[in-house]
Amino acid sequence: MENIKINKLEIENVKRIKAVKIEPTKNGLTVIGGKNQQGKTSVIDAIAWALGGDAFAPSDATRNGSVIPPNLHIVMSNGLVVERKGKNSTLKVTDPKGEKGGQLLLNEFVEKLALDLPRFMEASGKEKAQTLLQIIGLGDQVAEFETEEKEIYQKRLTTGQIADQKKKFAKEQPYYPDAPKDPISASELIRQQQEILAKNGENQQKRNHAAQLNEAVERQKEIVEELTQKLQEASQKLNQFKGDLEIANMDIQDLQDQSTAELEKNIEDIEAINVKVRANLDKDKAEEDAQDYEDKYQKLTAELKAVRDKKTTLLNQADLPLPELSVKEGELIYKGQKWDNMSGSERLMVSTAIVRKLNPKCGFVLMDKLEQMDVDTLNEFGKWLEGEGLQVIATRVSTGEECSIIIEDGYVQGQESEDAPEVPAKTSWKEGEF
Description:
Layout: E1 6-14, E2 17-22, E3 28-34, H1 40-52, E4 71-76, E5 81-85, E6 90-94, E7 100-101, H2 103-107, H3 112-115, H4 117-121, H5 125-135, H6 139-172, H7 186-226, H8 231-253, H9 261-316, E8 325-328, E9 331-334, E10 337-338, H10 344-358, E11 364-367, H11 375-388, E12 391-397, E13 405-408, E14 411-412
Parallel strand pairs: 3-12, 3-13, 11-12
Antiparallel strand pairs: 1-2, 1-4, 4-5, 5-6, 6-7, 8-9, 9-10, 13-14
């Protein structure tokens, strides 16, 4: 697609301009230099007025002290001739075939931001990014991704805060490693105590029985001694009792009573133990809650990354105005840097490339006040323009050799006489020239 540029321009009696004729460099940077209040900016304003229409008309277009109305004559690279002259500065656009046209014909290839680049450069970072996204047709899709990204980010932030609170709460809970896993039942301890007491009671009965048998033996001995006549009968009973005694002694020989002291102590300490058990259970629950929110946080982090990856893939596949130019977190990013960290030449390159992308037919851009840039930056920017096939007409408070032409008292230096030959702009931007 052919991009249209400015071949020639003639300006008379506009603001501070008396009479200026310029042939801008076709590809590259044309620097209009001069001291302050000599008419440099008037050249830029006049071009914008001629091509951009009434929205760019100066509030007081006629040069102070002149009785002759403004006269503008611009020849475009596509052959169109644009004129504003006469008392009302009426617009006249003539195509190569001699047919007339108006502002609508100019609007096909004249990009408004190309006439007012500071409007773009002074916009907020978000506005610049939105302009770029709308140009490449991704504004709505990226907006949807960013909305989803913000929602997930906020949800993850809240989840992370709760997870931190849960972790802190779990960490502050007391824990007793010596406590049992489950609460102790008092009735169970009492049941065990009663079983032991019952067993001990049986043992005591056996001891009592053995003692009774021992007394019987003694009594029978006395009976044997006293009742010799009943010796046989008593002897039989004695032998029987001896046998029973022997058996009884064997039964009680290995008996050992169990102590209930530990159970009694446990019954007394049961509430204290259960306090520890409940504390341990509370800590386990707190740690479980904390881990649950940690898992949710990690899941949301993965979702957030997925959305960001989709947005990055979308932008990487887009037809962007410059390599390494993208949009991240609502900001223009060029070579990994946000706008405020870009160099002066990088900002100009990004702005010019975006303006060209807005309307590829527009092959020129107007810039004012490039004096804040050093010669090296101008040289770098000029070389980039040449490589991109773009035309920039800019002003600079300087009379140095970096200037293509010098404006002095409303004239191009060397054109003060009406008979002086037209001065073409410098076209060479070789390294080391300045």
